[in-house]
Amino acid sequence: MTIHPSSTLTVPQASAIPRHIAIIMDGNGRWARNRLLPRVAGHAEGLDAVRKIVEECRRIGVEYLTVFAFSSENWRRPPEEVSFLMKLFLKSLKGEVSKLAENDISLRLIGDISRFDSSIQEMVQFSEQKTAGCKSLTFTVAANYGGRWDILQAMRQCLAANPNLQPEQVTEELLQPHLSMAYAPEPDLFIRTGGEQRISNFLLWQLAYTELYFTDVLWPDFDEFQLHKAFEWYSQRERRFGRTSAQLASKVMSEAV
Ligand code: IPE
Ligand code: IPE
Ligand code: MG
Description:
By secondary structure, the chain is α/β, with parallel strands linked by helices. The chain has a single domain, classed as Decaprenyl diphosphate synthase-like (Undecaprenyl pyrophosphate synthetase), CATH 3.40.1180.10. It is built from 8 helices and 6 strands, in the order βααβαβαβααββαα. It has helices at residues 28-34, 39-60, 79-102, 118-130, 147-161, 172-175, 224-235, 245-256, and strands spanning 20-24, 64-71, 105-110, 137-145, 189-192, 211-214. The chain has a 6-stranded parallel β-sheet with strand order 3-4-2-1-5-6, sandwiched between helices. Strand 3, helix 4 and strand 4 (137-145) form a beta-alpha-beta unit. Helix 2 runs parallel beside helix 3. The model has no long low-confidence stretch (mean pLDDT 96). Magnesium ion (MG) binds next to loops.
């Protein structure tokens, strides 16, 4: 497995186009309410937005796209809404997997899917296997995912793999391979639609140095144009990773000569 550099241990190379985008797709319920529709109609519409964004990311050369589909706290929603989301998830996996494979997009799931129906678990396994060799874009869906769960499960795996580990021997390098997104570099750009400015227990560890972009646009209305607006904003950021602006400027100068 490729070991991706950690933003807290080394200064990562920042690219013009974000290599990895992580999105909290929020606002489906409000989108539906604004149209006097049931909340679930917003989720169905949100799926179309996912398709558009996946395609656009692949087209412009984003390498990793990660979306938050269902949080470990979303079980608190009314049972009918949870059940609708599960059915939509299964239906979309069945309907999209061949298209993903044709477009050279690999699908990965992160989160504790052991709580899902066996039909979903089997479909997840099938979809991951079918797209495993695809290289153009890695599309990750976070389902029953929580950032705290991720850190805890990584710690448990790390201790299981190194049973004689002393507390002072626990390092980032040792823990990192057990995190659920160890196969990807840390996100460069985080997008949250729907107007809230919070992380809601998404990738807590991995977002350490990610640029955070918040927009009031509701997820079903988020399209290619909105994605490019986020890129535009991202391109204006100075990614210092703890250094000063002057240090960055002198690095650019020394690389130019
Ligand atoms: C995000 O939209 C989708 C999920 C959490 C599954 P919401 O359903 O949270 O929409 P709002 O925030 O209520 O508008
Ligand atoms: C975050 O949205 C989770 C997903 C988009 C899947 P929520 O709507 O659940 O977040 P909160 O409750 O407003 O923080
Ligand atoms: Mg919400």
